[in-house]
Write a structure and sequence with these properties.
It is a single chain. By secondary structure, this protein is an alpha/beta fold. The protein has a single domain, classed as Rossmann fold (3-Layer(aba) Sandwich). The chain is built from eight helices and nine strands. The chain has a nine-stranded mixed β-sheet, sandwiched between helices. The longest helix has 21 residues.
Length: 257
């Protein structure tokens, strides 16, 4: 198992090589961005983007926030986006794009801890896949945790959800298939919840909803709730949050050496 092809990208980092990779998922050629350190890989971070299509596309600057000199960072584009074949099903078959990409990395770098970071729409993508790939931890940042809640709260997105998933009453089974919480229990890897209380794209109620479930089922978790912050944090607060995220990953790895 390996990437089908690699293309060097004009992203100049002192300690990493940046490549656009293509890999095969369900007979589709799916693309992603890969930052590989020059030094030995000691940590893998998988960044799951938000949005769809050109909205929320993968950006090298964002990926770079989660690396150090020994961290490999990978971000799938998802099928139907940015040159990937197929059609985006919004947490449907496109979940395989996440799983297969991570499995390629796990085979290439066995025994290396894998942390997944899901932002916005990527939040629910991660909740639905992080257990399957046996992630060391999962960080959900401003993330969607429940599509039914999203349908109720974001009237402006109902048309998109009807097209991509269906109507909550007529296609209830499709929403139930995307229920990210039902299989999370006390044996699940730890979760870090990051959210701003002024987030207008993904209401902080999503984070509270997830926290309630984790608490009820005795899942290890921690929270970073930032007062006055929106969907995208202001630079100084973002910098502080990134330090906390790196510390979280260190903590989770030290628990499971």
């Amino acid at each position: 198992m390996d990437f089908f092809s690699r293309k060097r990208m004009p992203v100049f980092l002192l300690d990493h090589v940046t490549e656009e990779v293509i890999y095969i998922v369900d007979r589709l050629k799916v693309r992603g961005l890969l930052m590989t350190p020059h030094k030995n890989v000691e940590r893998i971070v998988v960044y799951l983007r938000g949005g769809k299509g050109q909205v929320g596309r993968v950006r090298p600057a964002r990926m770079s926030q989660f690396k150090n000199k020994n961290t490999l960072v990978f971000a799938p584009y998802y099928r139907g986006s940015n040159g990937s074949e197929g059609r985006d099903h919004f947490c449907g078959d496109d979940l395989n794009d996440v799983i297969v990409g991570i499995n390629i990395l796990k085979e290439k770098y066995p025994q290396i801890p894998v942390h997944i970071i899901g932002f916005s729409r990527g939040g629910i993508q991660g909740l639905l896949t992080y257990q399957t790939v046996k992630a060391t931890s999962y960080i959900i940042w401003g993330g969607v945790t429940d599509l039914l809640m999203m349908y109720e709260e974001r009237i402006d997105l109902r048309g998109m959800l009807k097209r991509m998933v269906g109507h909550p009453k007529k296609q209830y089974e499709e929403y139930e298939r995307r229920n990210a919480l039902k299989n999370i229990n006390q044996d699940s890897p730890p979760i870090l919840i990051v959210h701003g209380d002024k987030d207008k794209q993904v209401n902080i109620n999503m984070a509270y909803h997830l926290e309630e479930h984790l608490k009820e089922h005795n899942v290890e978790y921690s929270t970073i709730y930032e007062q006055g912050e929106g969907h995208v944090f202001r630079p100084e607060k973002e910098k502080q949050t990134l330090i906390q995220i790196h510390n979280w990953m260190d903590k989770c790895e030290n628990k499971n050496p």
